[in-house]
Design brief:
Elements lengths: L2 H16 L3 H13 L1 H23 L2 H7 L1 H26 L6 H4 L3 H13 L2 H9 L11 H26 L5 H6 L1 H21 L4
């Protein structure tokens, strides 16, 4: 793969990872609830989910969805339902007020599980890989080039969210966020529900 093409791929992956959405909200929630380790666990498992979609894309996920639009619609609606469920959970947590260690406690295993589920159930992520990442794949692309695409997507996604978790768990940052956790939960819930409704209304632009 030419270096210029790889730079374009890396830029696309970075923009996708840094855009606000349910993935960022997830890492934030687990970092607030359990500190640095759960936040990092959520980041790494989310990166594995991203890698799976990247792998499916280089294997021809785009062609599959074009040939079977009903399958794509089912995946999208399933992802919207899961996003709505996460949004309702966040709103309920927000009504409790400030961050409650018992109500919001999280563990590394729970964070890892939800990180994977959010990645696999995020219709925006599916559209991202089908619409953008698949443009870098050609029928005659070598196995090494395909592996580079998958690894690039995984490393950029995992690296960004690990940076978020480490930054939020800093001794000066986390207390400030904990004091405002109820507002963060409410904003997260509204964001997730709005995204779910947008998916139901039609394709994400």
């Amino acid at each position: 793969m030419p270096f210029s093409l790889w730079m374009s791929l890396a830029a696309v992956c970075a923009m996708g990872a840094m855009s606000p959405g349910p993935s960022l909200a997830l890492v934030l929630r687990h970092t607030l609830g359990g500190g640095r380790l759960p936040g990092v666990a959520a980041a790494l498992s989310h990166a594995l989910g991203v890698g799976l979609y990247a792998l499916l894309t280089v294997w021809g996920l785009g062609a599959l969805i074009v040939r079977f639009p009903l399958l794509f619609q089912a995946i999208t609606w399933g992802g919207a339902a899961y996003l709505a469920w996460l949004g309702i959970k966040a709103l309920r947590a927000g009504r409790a007020g400030a961050l409650d260690a018992e109500a919001m406690a999280t563990s590394g295993s729970q964070a890892a599980r939800e990180g994977m589920l959010v990645a696999l159930g995020n219709p925006k992520l599916i559209l991202f890989f089908v619409a953008l990442l698949s443009q870098f794949v050609t029928p005659d692309m070598s196995l090494a080039a395909r592996a580079i695409i998958v690894l690039t997507a995984m490393i950029i996604d995992g690296g960004w969210y690990m940076l978020v978790a480490v930054s939020l768990s800093h001794s000066r940052v986390l207390p400030w966020l904990q004091a405002r956790a109820h507002w963060i939960n409410r904003a997260t819930g509204v964001l997730l529900l709005a995204l779910a409704l947008r998916v139901v209304a039609g394709p994400i632009g």
